[in-house]
Hints:
The protein is α+β, with helices and mostly antiparallel strands and 470 residues long. The chain is 38% helix and 20% strand. The protein is built from 18 helices and 16 strands. It has helices spanning 51-57, 61-64, 70-81, 91-104, 116-123, 132-138, 149-167, 169-181, 222-229, 237-245, 257-271, 277-283, 321-335, 339-342, 352-355, 369-380, 421-429, 438-448; strands at 4-12, 22-31, 34-42, 85-88, 113-115, 202-207, 215-219, 248-253, 286-290, 300-304, 314-318, 394-400, 403-410, 413-418, 454-456, 465-468. The strands form four sheets. A five-stranded mixed sheet has the order 3-2-1-4-5, with helices on both faces. A five-stranded antiparallel sheet has the order 14-13-12-15-16, with helices on both faces. Strand 12 and strand 13 form a beta hairpin. It is elongated, with a radius of gyration of 31 Å. The relative contact order is 0.08.
Amino acid sequence: MLPRYVLLDLETTGGNPVQDRITEIALLRIENGSICARWQSLVDPQQPIPPFVQRLTGINQAMVAGAPRIEQLLPQVFELLDGAVLVAHNARFDHGFLKSAAARAGIDLRVRTLCTVRLARRLYPQARGHGLDALLRRHGLQCSDRHRAMGDVEALHAWLGAAAADVGVAALREAAAALLRGSTSLPPQLDTRVEDIPAGPGVYLFHGDSAIPLYIGKSVNLRRRVLQHFQSDHSDEREMRIAQQLRRVECIETAGDLGALLLESRLVKQLQPIYNRQLRRARQLCSWQLDDDPHARPLLRLVRGEIAGPSAVLYGVYRSRRQAVDSLRELAAREALCPRALGLEAGGGRCFAHQIGQCRGVCCGGEDAVAHHARLRAALAAHRLQAWPWRGAVALRECGAGGSQLHVFDDWRHLGSVQDEAGARALLQAPQVQAFDLDTYRLLLARLRGAGELLLLDASRSAAAAVGDG
């Protein structure tokens, strides 16, 4: 199949390479079609073996007591892997445990891997099931010591021989080489081919069996970013869970980074993916809204971007409620404003700040409510969200590695991204359902200043007027 490769199998205390440990390791080193080394060892995992794992593998605590620890075995393992490709059934599992063990010993394991699950899928795309038991049944092969490391390695070796006889040595060799040319780090159950993932900018959606996406992200190089997910999952539990559930990668290309940022923000809020829902909520920005009534209590209300309209008078852009409250406390202390009137302190009568001389007394009649309201408005003025600086909608043209797009905005709302001016004017004529969004507002503040070509759009005219840098 390959000039030099090592068939490897591990038994472990569980399926998590971060938390669980190896209990048995076995390998065959094969050079030019012949077995040149056969090696196996039990391993002391230095943690309990769960009862169900003991029943599955037949390896119990007494068997591993006094066995070498994995770090004692790594030098011999690395010597046997030297110059060879690591081949395993669901190679991500075995490679992940071996890489984690090496990392705990301060070693960065670098070895090419080939997954025989993916190899079986490539050789027999119409077949149902590519687990080792399914492969053995399909080819009429027996394994006398299933779920023991050497038994599974020998079964895998037998299947490779049967596959070579079935499809031909040349076809087996070409399939293995094709997987090595691509990325063998992809999960074995993934249906998406790595060569089908674009190398340009855009948004990627990880899909499992559920209708809700597992994860949504963006990148200026989709293929590279997707592969990065599966290079770190051996040490990151969230990445590992995503890899275990992933079935399909969907990619949406954009002209550049701005289009990817806008699309990612919209899709994450719309689809609420499982593994970045909490991250999205943490990043969802909030702002203070001032009541027009000087006697209202509290005077300020914290609002999220999606419930505040573009015409609302808002102050500050904060990543969390805590950040917003801390900023308001600093403002109140600096300007001698009343924390109780602002909603920062509960209760009645004099606030604590007035008792220590840091409030002018609107809480107890010492300051007129209208005067306090005016001072508060003046203090907040520097934090007020900007008014929309254009008369009507604008389109920002983005030209990048993915081509050209017009991103259309009105009152800080992203109406959509289109290919040309006709598409932009069509967006303006369509019913508007997009809500004001503080994430988009903050993004535009940074991007529209010094932007490239901006077009001032007017749906009543047949042409759009260029307005330069805005």
